[in-house]
Amino acid sequence: MRTLFKAAVFLVVSGIMIGGASLQNIFVMQRAHAAEMQSVTESAGKMTAVGYGALPAGMPVGRAKMMARRAAIVDAQRNLVEIIKGTAVDSATTVENFLVTSDIVKTKVNGMVTGATVIAEKMDADGAYEVTMEVPMYGVGSIADVAINAVVGDKTPVPVPAPSPAFVQIYNQVSVNSNTPGYTGVVIDAQNSGILRTFCPAIYDTKGRAVYGVNNVDKDFAIHNGVVEYAEGSEQWGHVTAGASRAGTNPLVIKIVGLRERVVNKCDVIISEADADKLLAENQRSHFLDRYAVVLEK
Fold first, then answer.
1. So where are the chain's domains?
2. CA triplet 178, 179, 183: central angle to 5 degrees?
């Protein structure tokens, strides 16, 4: 299970005094530190946001709490929209790019946020009502559903390219004389590279050849499972080492050369031409890309 994005942005309100300080001042200070409270981590595949509402003065406590809760929900929904808008779809695009140009995407995002689930709520010591809401990252009605449909549309998947003939001729001679079992998948080692997690990552070689990406993956699979499986941190790396990832028990491990340059979102990796040919040649042997058995360690 994964945590992808979490942020808290705070509503500026006024009117209630707490220990000589107004809620407005407290919320302004919180908002100034909002960036420090944002995180991009992996957990249950949910995107979460926190919202706050102030207790209105001069009304019964029960009704005041109801109004504060509603204000907190609206604030959390607003914050979810902001987080979703900034989410990277591919190397050059965020969800916001599609929101500007597509009424369909806008409608889907609005519906998703309106239907967001409240997962936690409480009254803070400072008198503010706090609500945490979440939307799914993957599956039907998720951010991935919106993003991948916007990119892929009705296109059918295209096959990955073949390795270069010169490489195949030499590599097949080596493989024929080898008793090594076929690889069950591929692990792309991008550890400590600063790569950004996204819905449509791609693998290129140093010659600019597109090796693997969203256009090679069944759309429904990508929406439910992702184009690649991401592994970050020692616990998830251990999961891969133990053979429990979708790359299987005998993955081909390839270290990246770098990240793709001159793009907005650093989410695409570059591997050497020889490693790309080896990956594609081994895929012809074991067909692990037919199962999208790709893990990206970040």
1. 3-151, 165-297
2. 95
